[in-house]
Specification:
The protein is α/β, with parallel strands linked by helices. It folds into two domains: 81 residues, 2-Layer Sandwich (Nucleotidyltransferase, domain 5), CATH 3.30.420.40; 144 residues, ATPase, nucleotide binding domain (Nucleotidyltransferase, domain 5, 2-Layer Sandwich), CATH 3.30.420. The protein is 37% helix and 23% strand. The strands form two sheets. A five-stranded mixed sheet has the order 3-2-1-4-5, sandwiched between helices. It has a five-stranded mixed sheet with strand order 8-7-6-9-10, with helices on both faces. The chain is globular and about 60 Å long.
């Protein structure tokens, strides 16, 4: 018998959705935040084609929630089929109590898909770096403002600096324009810092996989210039790989 599950990851800027069939990831997509008044109008995601095709009763589909946004979490918690994922659901060791649940699930997904040890670099609203060792134990990591947050902070926090668009390639280091100088300052500093983290990680765990994810993960992987390019992969679905592994354990 085929069973559907829905994954909902609430990030700092939008919803990330996934549909699982028998705990296997089938599709993923993003939508904007909902407000409580819009929530009451109808079931708040566009699953109608899936429902029609599979004859699914929408109020019976379990929704597995991964959220780092308390006010959005509250909107969803009143639905009976919503089951919130917590750190206790993740079979990794040494997780500290305030570790972001999305970060933990994504790192678990990286380890399950690419093997342990693994280093995950998530280019989201916040840019996070997280390492797991061979024994599935959290080594540690780092958090800094994401690329777009750094750009917007300069634009919103100053009177004359413009808002720039992220270039597809790492820009020239020495720029002769204000937009170019902003791009150079942010991107060379961030890429050099990430590269330093990667080199240090490979001293600790030679041969470890490096996995980029998140909305700006592809750009970050392109910007970072290190000597381990054969160990770098891009995977936007890390969090849902982790959720799939959690669901597989629950439904086994």
């Amino acid at each position: 018998m085929e069973n559907s599950q829905i994954g909902l990851s609430i990030g700092n800027s939008r919803y990330h959705w996934a549909w699982f069939l028998n705990t296997k990831l089938q599709a993923s997509w993003d939508t904007e935040y909902l407000t409580i008044d819009r929530f009451s109008e109808s079931f708040p995601i566009d699953l109608q084609a899936l429902i029609n095709q599979s004859q699914i009763e929408i109020d019976l589909i379990p929704i597995y929630l991964v959220s780092v946004v308390p006010n959005q979490t509250t909107i969803w918690q009143h639905l009976a089929q919503v089951k919130q994922i917590t750190l206790a659901d993740i079979p990794l060791n040494n997780l500290y109590p305030t570790l972001g649940i999305d970060r933990a699930v994504a790192t678990f997904g990286a380890g399950e898909v690419y093997g342990y040890p693994v280093l995950v670099i998530d280019g989201g609203t916040a840019l996070t770096i997280t390492g797991i060792d061979t024994n599935c134990c959290l080594v540690g990591g780092a958090i800094l403002p994401g690329l777009r947050l750094q750009i917007s902070s300069l634009y919103l926090g100053t009177a004359a600096l413009p808002e720039i668009i992220l270039p597809h390639q790492l820009p020239l280091r020495w720029s002769d324009s204000t937009p170019g100088s902003i791009a150079s300052g942010i991107l060379h500093t961030v890429s050099s810092g990430i590269g330093d983290f990667i080199r240090d990680w490979h001293q600790l765990f030679p041969g470890s996989q490096i996995v980029f994810t998140g909305g700006d993960g592809e750009l970050l992987a392109r910007y970072v210039q290190v000597d381990f390019s054969d160990k770098i992969v891009l995977d936007r679905e890390l969090l849902f790989h982790g959720l799939a592994a959690i669901l597989a354990d629950r439904y086994s």
